[in-house]
Amino acid sequence: MFTDLLRDNVMRNIVLVGFMGTGKTTVGRLIAEKTGMPLVDMDSMIVKRAGKSINEIFAEDGEPHFRLLERELVKELSARSDQIISTGGGIVLNPENIADFEETGLVVCLLADAGSVLERVRHDSARPLLAGDKEAKVIALLESRKPLYEAIAHKIDTSGRPSPAPTAQEIIDLYESNSR
Fold this sequence. Notes:
This protein is an alpha/beta fold. It has a single domain (2-172), classed as P-loop containing nucleotide triphosphate hydrolases (Rossmann fold), CATH 3.40.50. The protein contains nine helices and five strands, in the order αβαβαααβαβααβα. It has helices at residues 2-8, 24-35, 42-50, 54-61, 63-78, 95-104, 114-121, 134-150, 165-178, and strands at residues 13-18, 39-41, 83-86, 105-111, 154-157. The protein has a five-stranded parallel β-sheet, sandwiched between helices. Helix 2 (24-35) crosses helix 9.
């Protein structure tokens, strides 16, 4: 049944957006397992193509260059179909990114409170925007991006959820109901 929906629907992709540590990649993996659709992790693709880590891109080329690489990848991915796309947390900074993804897919924003995000990224050193005081940076970034995340039509709060499985199923159900 799911593959029939994929062939005929307008919503060809599932796009996961949200702040770092909200579960985009983890939930995306579960959705991929359940649907058979491939998971595309944008940050991983950028790292592979650039031949350096996101930290190195930020340090050597700057955040504007990273955002340019991200924008080009959004254009490419939104022209494809039948995939789950896990975006980077800053994808919402350019409204064109969300507009492009909404044209070809169901965009779902995963939300989490600052405490949940901090718990999830506490030992992660691969996030250039969190260098230094992680708690202060998470709170400030989350607050500054909150209106952008809140503007996404479909939102799921992952704070305090013991498992990502219900979130994945909720997104699959939403995708199926929007594809009829």
